[in-house]
Amino acid sequence: MTSPDQQAPPEPANTSLANRYGAQKRRLSPAARRAIGGVALAAGIGFMAWVSTSNSLTTVSFKDIGYATTDATVAEVDFQVTREPGTAVKCAVKALDSKFAVVGWKVVDVPPSQAEETADGGRTVSQRVTVRTESLSVSGVVDSCWIPGSSGQKM
Predict the structure, then answer these.
(1) Residue 92 pLDDT > 70, yes or no?
(2) Phi, then psi, of 128 in degrees rounded to 5
(3) pLDDT band per the 50, 70, 90 thresholds, residue 137
(4) What span, in angstroms and rounded, lies between the C-alpha atoms of 68 and 138?
(5) Category of 51 on φ-ψ map: left (φ > 0), alpha (ψ -120 to 50) or beta
(6) Which pTM was predicted?
(7) pLDDT at 28 over 90
(8) CA 45 to CA 33: how far, in whole Å?
(9) pLDDT tens figures, 64-88
C-alpha cells in the first residue's frame, strides 16, 4: 500500500518580538525632553500668575461677624466687606431658621469709601443690616457679594 505524498510541514513563522509587535519606538533625546519640560513649566507658571493677578484685581470678599434676633420678625446681621477703595458693592444677606430655611432676604448696597476712612486704606468696611423675617431666625449670614455691573458675576 502506498501512501499519498504528505506535504512538508510549513516553516515556523519568524517569532522575533520586532516582527510580532513592530519596531521599537524611538525615544526623545535628553535635550528635547528638557525643552518640553521647560515649556510646560513656563506655561504653568504663567497660568498661575494670570489666575492670581486676575482674581485679586476685582475680588470682593466678606466675613460674617455676628447676628442678633430681636423678635420673630427682625434679625440684624453684622459683616465686613473687603474690596478696592472707591468701589460700590452689593451683598445678599439672609436670615435662616433652625432647619436652615431662608426666612428673610435682603440685598444691601455697600457704598464706596475713601482711602483714608479705615485703617487698611478704605478696603474693609463693617456693615449692620436689619433683615425682616417671616418667622423666628436663629442665624444671619451673607450669601454673596458682587460689584454691580461687572459682568453680573457674584463672588
Answers:
(1) yes
(2) -125, 125
(3) very high
(4) 8
(5) alpha
(6) 0.59
(7) no
(8) 18
(9) 999 999 888 999 999 999 888 888 8
Q: β-strands 89-96, 139-146: how paired? A: antiparallel
Half-sphere CA count of 83, side-chain side, radius 13 A: 24
Query: Of the candidates 79, 40, 49, 69, which has an alpha carbon nearest to the alpha carbon of residue 134?
Result: 69
Specify whether the CB–CB gap between 79 and 91 falls below 8 A.
yes
Q: How many CA atoms lie within 13 A of 37 on its CB side?
A: 7
The reported pLDDT for the residue numbered 98 is 92
Q: Sheet holding 74-82: strands in order across? A: 61-71, 74-82, 124-132
Buried/exposed code over 87-99 (b: 16+ C-beta within 10 A; e: otherwise): bebbbebbbbbee
The full 3-state SS of the chain, as one line of letters, equals: CCCCCCCCCCCCCCCCHHHHHCCCCCCCCHHHHHHHHHHHHHHHHHHHHHHHHHHHHCCCEEEEEEEEEEECCEEEEEEEEECCCCCCEEEEEEEECCCCCEEEEEEEEECCCCCCCCCCCCCEEEEEEEEECCCCCCEEEEEEEECCCCCCCCC
Q: How many of the other CB atoms lie within 10 Å of CB of 54?
A: 10
